[in-house]
Amino acid sequence: GGGQKNGFGQSPILIPYENHSTCDTDTEGYESFGGDCTYADLDYLILKGSLAVRVKKGSDGKKVCSLDSWKIPQSDKLYEATEFHIKSGEEHLLEGGRGIMEIQIFYQESSGETQAAFAFTVVDPLHYTSNPFSTVNENEVIENFLKGWRTTFYETQDYCNEKTSEENTYNVNTVLKEKQQYMICQDFDNPAYAGETWIPSGTKPSPAPISNLVSDISGMTQNIDESSVITYEGSLTTPPCTENVYWNLIRHHVIISHKQAAELLILINCVKERSSCQWSSAASEFGKTVRPPQQLNGRKLVHRCHGKPHRDITHDVPEYEAYEKQELDSPIYAILFPFSITLVGLFVYYFVSRILHLIPYTAILFVIGTFIGLILPFIDSDDQLNRSASMWNEINGELLLVSFLPGLIFKDAYCLDVHLFMKALPQTLLWAFPTVLAGTSLMAVFVYYILGYDWDFFLCMTFGAIVSATDPVSVSALLQELGAPPRLQTHISGESLLNDGSAIVFFSIFKDLYLFNQKIEGGHSIGLGEGIWTFIKMSIGAAILGVLFGILLVFILYVLNRRFNTEEKIVQVTATYCLAYLTYYVGEVLLHMSGVIAVVFLGLTTKFAADSLIIDHDMMNKFWALIEHLLNTILFAVGGVVWGVIISQNDDLPVNFGARDWGYLFATYIFIFVSRFFLFGAAFPIVNRIGLKSDWREMVFHAYGGLRGAVGIALAISLNHEVVRDTTQIDPRRIPTLQCFGLVGGISLLSLLINGSTAGYVLKYFKLNRSTKERTDILKGYDNYLTKRSLEMFITLIGENVYKDIDFDLVTQYIPQLSALTYKDIRGAIKSVKYTRPSHLYNEPEVAVFQAILTDEELEKLKSLAKIKLFERLQGDYITACALLPDELHSDDKELSEQVVRELRLVFVELLGRAYEEAMTCGQIDVRDGAVVHILKSSVAVTGDEVSNGLPINDWSHTQRYNSYVEKIERISTKIHLATAFILAHTEAQRTFKFKVHQGKFLSNEERKILAESEDQVSMAYEVLNTINPLKLKQVMSRKLCVVILNSAAIEISELVKFGLLKETEGEHYFEHLEEDIRNVKGKLNEKKEADPQGRGRMTSSRKTFLNVDPTAYAELRAEYEYALNED
Questions:
Q1: For residue 563, what is the enclosing H or E element?
Q2: Span 438-442, mean pLDDT?
Q3: If you average pLDDT over residues 586-592, what whole number do you get?
Q4: Residues near 675 by Cβ (< 8 Å), separated by ≥ 6?
Q5: Read out DSSP for 1020-1055?
Q6: Alpha helices in 868-1004 (DSSP H)
Q7: Model-level pTM greater than 0.70?
Q8: CB 961 within 8 A of CB 1022
Q9: What is the mean pLDDT of residues 1069-1076?
Q10: pLDDT tens readout for residues 4-13
Q11: Strand, coil or helix: 835
């Protein structure tokens, strides 16, 4: 009591099944008093969620009569009936969920502080009797009430019909789904269609008296002596949910006829609101309007039975953990499916890129989605992934379109060659509008007259528009890989973009006409004139809108003009992403234009006017490639799931996809391409004379390459879900759209598997790829170029101390191109390296490695050529000349500044980290050698922290702290990799420090100190190498040199592909062979540690060897240096 709502005494609660043997006390204390009302004295209310009855009030505001009153055991006050409610579903589950409704009668005492409520469970014969077809007499009280509710229903109908002259289209906003086996919430204006659930008109409620609501409706005596009662203190179950109700749950079910049950459910769940004259519903997804059970929170439950009780106690109501329905429907589960399918897509990509090159990636994703859809209806599991997939299977159609299409369309439009596209515009317009309309009409005639489906003709036209949308993704990638003519690429991509736009325009028009014919929300009648205007508005208007948004995007990109600012590059990409989706939303949702055409012209305007304003084209292209990959992955998987559910022979669907449908699918697939060839052939005489022109071979491939994909799948899902949203599960209007999507999904799969897989063969058959013979000659030239670059890299590497002693025979085993070298080849490579590299970066190569293939005389000539005099080094700029001096020549009497030393140390550590990154890029450090990478990166991080606190550079010692991990691996090669990577990184950091950081005539004391600390670290690394067997060291370093050369070759090939000198397929061919060669070399590098025999080799390190300076020639060096300065 108390009239407060504190949340701890809420109703309903779960009531366990109890019988008479578990009663707590008797039913004494109940006493009723009759009223003087008749059925004509009541107001009959159709509320959103329940049916209600209240006593009418007169002009003075007082009740015209009184209903029955009750005394209850919980209180000594008298309670008078105020309201009668019926809700669909059991709130207190007195019959274990078997009831279809619950009757609640509310009573109030005179002060209004507390209320009493009696509740009954209502069952119908289909739920209760052993014979579901048995005849049950109608409940007299319910029938009298129904007369009143029918009257209210028709009064609302009449009011709404007078209020508006527009056709009263059925517009039920309901989410009723699975459990409407005995009702059809449909068009109330068509009694022939609704059948037995039609609400009949009839007389108004009779003036028959109402003696006692509880006893009249249940058939019990007024003393409740034929059943038991469960009582507890609770609240109202509808707002304001006041906690002042004594609940009396009577365990005596009320039986009504099946006809009454169906009519009540109709009236409860499908309400025409008088304020808006729109149909609506407060029902849950299971067709119920009850409130979920609430927590007991310490309240007591008393079971009262007629007669002497078996025991006299009170007990707690048990808590039921299983009832957590809100968690089962949590929206957060929706995120699981797309990320899971994207992860699956990674494995699919690996499989496609290495094994099944012919099958398109999207086709396999669609197949995987189909498999999920096939098993989804039969999985009786509440796991989160299953529910997530189910949520995506039921995704809102409009949400699907606005989520996927803008990203896919903008990417395709932006990547077009806009100049070729503008020249080919007359051809693409011919293909995109007249040809699409003709194809849509041909397909509609085929489906309407040839196939055996009983479809509305406007649905046939809608289907024709859907299958007219083509997807160029797979074919466009193939054309680029095989080097098809740019004209053909432009024709296919351009036609597909405008084709998608026009197909969606026709789809929208015919879809509205179909929905209107079926009286489904969202449809409306469109005449010829309005249809033409709609087409112009959705196409030309959308194009203008896209150009306007494109101008806005151009302005944004123009303002973001700080070309060397990384954040600005990211913001530019973000601007394109935001404008793509906003353009689609404004066009499609706000202005009811074609969002696709608007986004197409946004992309074209951006490409035409803002291409030069984009700071980082590589980032822009990679971002949109990523977006396209993710959207295609998820969309094709979702399409497969929906299609799989439709063809799964699921009993919950109103139609099954059987043998007849499979036959229709293959017939439709064949007809689509036959009609496409026919239309392209008919348009060829015109196409061949306008725009970029064409030839018959390109026309044939163009027609064959019209794959169906993302856009068609999205449109079909959108149509199906729009119908599902506004119909019930057993509505026959769902059947045609399910069949429609069944065909669309199958056609998409067949076109991807058949046309997508064989397009490459067709392209080669018509010789539309580049000429094989001439191309082979060009590739031979590239082979020679790569051999030359590999030799130059070899010459560069053997100039480094760590690569001075290598096994040339071993190198030629892994890089056979170097085995056929001549003196002339080596001499040319040394000259190229010596005279193209900056003098301060050049190190004299150890040409003795070629002694097996050259004569002594040739070796001497190469040694002489490879040497570089100090004077040659000093021909660069003044700072370089100063930096090349040995440390002994730098004299500075100034005191060390610890602050400067600390800052320089931080700079050097940054250079060291950068050197490691570059070493990983070029293959000096194997990125898959996790131990080495982790140790080196950790040493840099720890050293950076130490030098910031004034400590010297001591990173080698940090590498040794992790050495216990390396020792456990027991690989000599790992130690060698670690030490050599460390030495090379320090050497590179020293170079950069001397020639970029140092500014002035001589190295300062602070700079010399930093370099000395670095050299000390390098010396310690050399000491580790000196402990290793020289033969083993030579083998490992020789193989490591091979890896670096092969990696450099891969980088060269990437550059050739980037600049268009190599096609992607040709580059992939090179990469595959290089990857195999690198794996072979690394297989030898990762041998287990062997016993290190006696006789250790020595490798030395000093700044003098780095500078190639002989310390005994000190005076001569100084003389040469002074001479060079004078000459300068």
A1: none
A2: 93
A3: 90
A4: 439, 442, 443, 446
A5: HHHHHHTTS-HHHHHHHHHHHHHHHHHHHHHHHHHH
A6: 870-873, 878-883, 898-922, 930-948, 955-961, 963-969, 972-992
A7: no
A8: no
A9: 83
A10: 445 678 888 8
A11: helix
